[in-house]
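Course assignment 3, question 2. Fill in each field.
Student: A.L.
Task: Predict the tertiary structure for the chain below.
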Amino acid sequence: MNRLAISFTSSLIAAALLLTSPAGSQTPSGKDIVAPEAYASHDPVARGMSFQVAVVLKIRNGFHVNAREVTDDYLIPTDLRAEVPAGFKIGTISYPKGTLQTFAFS
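Answer field:
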């Protein structure tokens, strides 16, 4: 995995940690719930070359993350943020379409 992919992965782990609220000592950490993986469209990437990065979240059974487009104001949308090295630009980020689900707690 190249440095940019590691940066994306680190950012996603940090985001996952923010999505979980500590409700007690038995609450699992974000690292235990969400495992992000990043894949570059070219490896290695030549200087000046454009490339894409796909970020895939593996979410532990029994947990969920919200889609980018949420259906209610109280829901927190998924938001990909990344710190990239100088000289890099982040283009348009596209998110997969969400799947509407209902839960016993909602």
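Instructor remarks: Residues 1-106 form one domain. The chain has one domain: 1-106.
Grade: pending
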